[in-house]
Amino acid sequence: MTQPSPTTATTDTAKGQIRQANQALILEAAERVFAGAGFGGATMAAIAEAAGLPKANLHYYFGNKKELYRAVLDRTLRDWLAPTDGITPEADPATALASYIRDKMRQSAQRPHASRVFANELLHGAPELSDLLHSHLSPLVRAKAAVVDGWIAQGRMAPVDSVHLFFTIWSATQTYADFDVQVRAVLGRTELTQADHERATRHVVDLVLRGCGLTA
């Protein structure tokens, strides 16, 4: 078998890095545009302008608007579920839950547009996301809820409804992205500061852990 030359391998690596960078740039721009205009109001031209790339680049990486929208939703769900890896039978309940909450709060602060796109999709009945909710989200949450039930059975935390615990965490963390206008109005802010996010994170972590009979 002929082996690729070092020059060819280097070129392929560079092309792969450019592809990944462009895809990330497009997805980030799409999050902003979809969050502001919704799926119906968003256009590939507006997303291309937000990304600072030619419109042809968008169609090269994502065939059409629906495919790009689906990619935004898929990435958001994947990134939200990744932090649950720390929720394992052998983990310390307080540490694992606090870490998960902090990750969710961090994502709400750093990627609020992604959260709004996701929320808007759910409010419209999840026409593009329904299959992922059933095939990925549901089994993962049930698996992690079983871990929480195991902690409870071992006396390592107070009895709670393990499935609804995740609903509570999602609603408490995502509100700082989805309803930041409301939060800012009450706090008297034009933008939420890092101190605001840190204060909110401490509050949500402490509130959830106390409800589970745990301390940070």
Could you walk me through the main structural features you see in this protein, from its secondary elements to its overall organization?
By secondary structure, this protein is an all-alpha fold. The protein has two domains: 6-63, Orthogonal Bundle (Arc Repressor Mutant, subunit A), CATH 1.10.10; 74-211, Tetracycline Repressor, domain 2, CATH 1.10.357. It is 76% helix and 0% strand. The protein has helices at residues 6-41, 44-51, 55-61, 65-81, 93-110, 112-123, 130-153, 162-178, 180-187, 194-211. Helix 1 crosses helix 6 (112-123), helix 4 (65-81) crosses helix 6 and helix 5 (93-110) runs antiparallel to helix 10. The longest helix has 36 residues, at 6-41. It is globular. The N and C termini lie far apart (57 Å).
Characterize this entry briefly.
The protein is mainly alpha-helical and 216 residues long. The protein is built from 10 helices and no strands. It has helices spanning 6-41, 44-51, 55-61, 65-81, 93-110, 112-123, 130-153, 162-178, 180-187, 194-211.
